[in-house]
Amino acid sequence: MDDQPASDNLKPAYARVVLKLSGEAFGHSGKSGISIDETLTIARQAKRVLESGVQLAIVVGAGNILRGAQFSAGGAIIKESTAHYMGMLATVLNGLALQDALESLDCQTRLLTAIRMEHIAEPYIRRRAIRHLEKGRVVILAGGTGNPFVTTDTAAALRARELDADIVLKATKVDGVYSDDPEINPHAVRYERLTYGQVLRDNLRVMDAAAIDLCRVAKLPILIFNFKRDGNIERAIAGHTIGTLVGELP
Q1: What are the backbone dihedrals phi and psi of residue 8, each rounded to the nearest 5 degrees, phi first?
Q2: Distance CA 96, CA 111 (A)
Q3: What are the residue boundaries of the structural domains of the chain, listed by start?
Q4: What is the tens place of the pLDDT at every residue in 141-158?
Q5: pLDDT at 203
Q6: Is the dihedral angle over the CA atoms 78, 83, 89, 95 positive or is it negative?
Q7: Which of 5, 20, 101, 161 has its CA 20 to 30 A from that of 146?
């Protein structure tokens, strides 16, 4: 892993990126809810990215608040499609928290949602989102795709293609993709590079198959990295060799 410290002099390797943040990014490990400290940590890194001249769109998840599966398993009375809509609405809570955290740092933002709720956010419109990016605003994308049975990983891949992003950055709490669970198997090996085919063939837990295939068709690279280390979002955008890069063979 690249041990170079974060620096104001990191030169971006990408002009426009989509950053996928799981809901766990907004809370403390093992706890539910939104942590102001964790949200501000994300916002500070995002601000530095914005100040480097990179156009930044952020797709947010909601696992810190609820997961649709928890309401639709074991004969629950809530239908699976309803549970998915509940999860999509929960992403808006994280989006609002991130928006205010960024604006407290004097960053211009726009929160766009796939489910219309004009009193608190703009509806997602591709051309509008691109215009916000061009004006130097952080675009926060909530509500998934607006459809049940679609993960926020797939939403990130879809939005990245729509917005002509250069890369999808999947922020996690681990430093890449491993051959096995590193917490269980101390001999697990971290991959530095993978092809889309390897991810699909070996069923590696990178993103769901639909998201991988969307990126594969467009030859859109995906970087899986540990965002908890301060400065890693900047390092990722600068093209440093951190995490695991999924793409075409070099």
Answers
A1: -65, -15
A2: 7
A3: 16-247
A4: 999 999 999 999 999 999
A5: 87
A6: positive
A7: 101
